[in-house]
């Protein structure tokens, strides 16, 4: 069985993790990825986060690709290669990429999909300004996130270059999405993708919409999740509370029923922080394994805390074959981030040697792809006509289907009156407010362009409606724990019997098999188990949970999987089951930790705001108070090159301390990081963030203000690119909504065409379309099977 993208040619003109991961996803999907390098080769070929003699991460990211070395006189070869390709992935870090303009490639080769990956996008006031993954986290609001860290210390950014990995996943998904449109009319697309915007989507939780709709930020101070990652008697353990019920169960489990207060207006986090010390003291007395067994019995999300050394030995990942050996170098690497039944992904393959395929490509008959012969269709949405049944809730699943909806798919979001989408319930709106369940900014931001149908599928009548919905859908996406679908009798065989060419996407936290399959999983537990938490925080305390990336990362990986599965269906007519476990997606973007340990024996460690890609790199307090009146304003500075160091010295006025010759190289600056930090901290402390940014950015130094997440609309670059669109709503005020991290040459004029639906708003129109009569629909309403207000269900009526 061939992989879905067999015969699809991608020219890789990128360097760095983002482009490499994007083209890895395409290569694993079966594409022929030709990596074009200069004679020195991609710097990733020698990179190691631990400073070891590198190459292992490159071997993982470049597996199955071909390498062509481009000499100075070879521009004709590059042109022939691009003319014969279907897509190009471009980033300015590549020496070869600097010789061609991505806009010009799109103009000259109208069949091509050209995906350009840059820090801020290729147009706008910040285009071309220096940035690193670290400074982008600061600009995005991801450095403060939704409360990560503690108020007595500097905020902490998420470790492991997660922003670049997320960007790569988005780049692959957008390339695949517009391939779907190119197959329709032959016309390519120019995809201008912004790393900053990818980080906004992946590292923050719709803070702008929340602030604009409710008039208050999600959080005003940094507080760690409690318990989060905690010290047990014999090691670290992760425990989490994502709902009020889970907090009450944790109180009971720890012997503190008196902490349960069902009338309080405090959030779960606020309640937990009140009792943090007593709770941590109790945890410190418990063996980690016993604590996890107890938590599982209480249905409290839990996991061990993964890192590069131990995650490969965890029983669940061993049982699932979550890791494989690199076929050439033998180190351990994650398996694919999703699994298919009915279709195939390409097996892991060796990375190419530098220029290994140069002669082969030079001698090949590279036939140019034909230019489109007809005008592009007026419909610029790639997925018009695609019908998706969205049986997901909270963030991970809805973020996958939301992207499909923004790109044209017809999405039916399935809820029930007894169990609405969980994001309707987390905004802290009192039940005394009229239609309180319609006022959640999180639900509104995640579910535009969707229809809402409520069905109590625990009733026989509800299951009949559900079966009709499935039969009318091209794609079904669900993110229940596996036992729910099992109890409904809706496994892949049952769904395929209803629609023979269905694409069924299952997004459980820990997968469909393995000892943890039925464990409840929220983003933070996924982050803890996979190793994403391990690199976040300070070395003198347990890790902080990123508490954000686990969900949207799962969503964008599931999106890639859906698009590959649809391509398989297009060419074969066959159904596909996609298992897009949240944890498998997380293991892939945490791959560097496992690779470093298995290849070099190096266990990567958290180090506050320092990191392996730049020195100095840190957050420094600036002079002004923050918007809450606190001495809590910060800037991020990261020096990646010796030239940037010299630019920093000059901007500081070439002080005597900076003239030490040892500081002229990265190794010397890293060795003297404490000294450099002290001097930079003193310089920043007497200046405002705006002054610091003006002085350093203009000199060519990567720098950023650490933004409060709800202030993203103040960034001129995001305004220029219209990343936020103002959307009305029948209940809520008009507010800005984030879109996708791209601008397009020939894309839709707007991504948000309809506001998020009211609960059950489309029951009648959708059920009528399924063939139900008005009388049948009225019976469903009377029996509580469908409805428009929470708290009613067919089961309650049956019980009476």
From TrEMBL:
Annotated region (Disordered), positions in chain? 349-379
Q: Which UniProt keywords apply?
A: Transferase
| InterPro entries in the cross-refs | CoA-transferase_III_domain (IPR050483), CoA-Trfase_fam_III (IPR003673), CoA-Trfase_III_dom3_sf (IPR044855), CoA-Trfase_III_dom_1_sf (IPR023606)
Entry annotated with the keyword Repeat: no
GO MF annotations for this entry? CoA-transferase activity
Bias (Low complexity) ranges: 364-376
Q: What is this protein called?
A: Crotonobetainyl-CoA:carnitine CoA-transferase CaiB-like acyl-CoA transferase
State the organism of origin: Mycolicibacterium fluoranthenivorans
């Amino acid at each position: 069985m061939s992989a879905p993208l067999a015969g699809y040619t991608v020219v890789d003109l990128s360097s760095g993790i983002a482009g490499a991961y994007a083209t890895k996803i395409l290569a694993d999907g079966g594409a022929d990825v030709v990596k074009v390098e200069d004679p020195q080769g991609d710097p990733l070929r020698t990179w190691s986060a631990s400073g070891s003699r590198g190459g292992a991460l490159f071997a993982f990211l470049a597996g199955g690709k071909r390498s062509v070395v481009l000499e100075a006189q070879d521009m004709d070869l590059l042109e022939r290669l691009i003319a014969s390709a279907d897509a190009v992935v471009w980033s300015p870090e590549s020496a070869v990429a600097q010789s061609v303009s991505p806009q010009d490639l799109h103009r000259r080769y109208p069949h091509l999909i050209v995906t350009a990956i840059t820090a801020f996008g290729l147009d706008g006031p910040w285009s071309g300004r220096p940035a690193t993954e670290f400074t982008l986290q600061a600009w995005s609001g991801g450095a403060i996130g939704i409360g990560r860290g503690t108020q007595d210390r500097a905020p902490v950014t998420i470790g492991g270059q997660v922003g670049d990995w997320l960007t790569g996943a988005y780049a692959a998904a957008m390339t695949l999405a517009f391939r779907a449109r190119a197959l329709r009319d032959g016309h390519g697309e120019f995809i201008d993708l912004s790393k900053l915007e990818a980080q906004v989507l992946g590292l923050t939780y719709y803070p702008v919409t929340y602030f604009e709709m409710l008039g208050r930020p999600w959080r005003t101070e940094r507080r760690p999740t409690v318990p989060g990652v905690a010290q047990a008697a014999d090691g670290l353990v992760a425990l989490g509370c994502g709902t009020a019920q889970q907090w009450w169960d944790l109180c009971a489990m720890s012997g503190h029923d008196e902490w349960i207060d069902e009338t309080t207006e405090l959030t779960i986090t606020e309640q937990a922080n009140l009792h943090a010390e007593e709770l941590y003291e109790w945890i410190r007395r418990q063996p980690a394994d016993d604590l996890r067994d107890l938590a599982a019995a209480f249905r409290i999300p839990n996991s061990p805390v993964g890192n590069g050394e131990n995650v490969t030995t965890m029983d669940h990942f061993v049982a699932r074959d979550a890791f494989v050996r690199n076929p050439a170098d033998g180190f351990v690497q994650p398996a694919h981030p999703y699994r298919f039944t009915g279709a195939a992904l390409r097996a892991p393959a060796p990375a190419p040697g530098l220029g290994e395929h140069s002669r082969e490509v030079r001698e090949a008959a590279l036939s140019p792809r034909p230019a489109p012969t007809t005008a592009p269709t007026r419909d610029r949405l790639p997925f018009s006509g695609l019908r998706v049944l969205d049986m997901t809730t909270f963030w991970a699943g809805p973020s996958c289907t939301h992207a499909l909806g923004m790109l044209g798919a017809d999405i039916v979001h399935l809820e029930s009156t007894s169990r609405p989408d969980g994001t309707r319930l987390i905004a802290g709106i009192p039940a005394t407010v009229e239609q309180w369940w319609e006022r959640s900014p999180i639900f509104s931001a995640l579910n535009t362009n969707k229809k809402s149908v409520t069905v109590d599928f625990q009733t026989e009548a509800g299951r009949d409606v559900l079966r009709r919905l499935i039969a009318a859908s091209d794609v079904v996406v669900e993110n229940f724990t596996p036992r729910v679908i099992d109890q409904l009798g809706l496994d892949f065989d049952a769904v395929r019997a209803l629609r023979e060419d269905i694409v069924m996407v299952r997004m459980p936290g820990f997968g469909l098999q393995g000892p943890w399959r039925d464990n409840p999983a929220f983003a933070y537990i996924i982050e803890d188990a996979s190793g994403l938490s391990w690199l976040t925080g300070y070395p003198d305390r347990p890790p902080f949970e990123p508490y954000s990336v686990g969900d949207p990362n799962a969503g964008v990986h599931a999106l890639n999987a859906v698009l590959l599965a649809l391509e398989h269906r297009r060419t074969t007519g066959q159904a596909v089951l996609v298992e897009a476990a949240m944890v498998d997606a997380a293991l892939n973007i945490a791959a560097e930790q496992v690779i470093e340990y298995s290849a070099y024996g190096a266990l990567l460690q958290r180090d506050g705001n320092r990191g392996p890609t730049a020195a100095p790199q840190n957050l420094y307090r600036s002079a002004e108070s923050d918007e809450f009146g606190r001495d809590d304003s910060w800037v991020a500075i990261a020096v990646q090159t010796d030239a940037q160091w010299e630019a920093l010295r000059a901007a500081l006025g070439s002080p005597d301390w900076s003239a030490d010759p040892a500081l002229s190289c990265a190794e010397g600056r890293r060795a003297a990081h404490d000294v450099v930090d002290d001097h930079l901290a003193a310089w920043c402390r007497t200046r405002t963030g705006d002054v610091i940014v003006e002085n350093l950015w203009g000199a060519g130094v990567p720098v950023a203000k650490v933004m409060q997440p709800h202030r993203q609309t103040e960034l001129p670059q995001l305004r220029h690119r219209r990343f936020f669109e103002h959307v009305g709503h029948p209940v809520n005020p008009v507010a800005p909504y984030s879109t996708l991290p791209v601008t397009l040459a020939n894309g839709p004029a707007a991504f948000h065409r309809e506001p998020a639906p009211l609960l059950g708003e489309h029951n009648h129109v959708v059920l009528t379309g399924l063939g139900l009569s008005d009388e049948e629909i009225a019976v469903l309403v009377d029996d509580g099977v469908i409805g428009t207000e929470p708290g009613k269900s067919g089961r309650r009526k049956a019980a009476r």
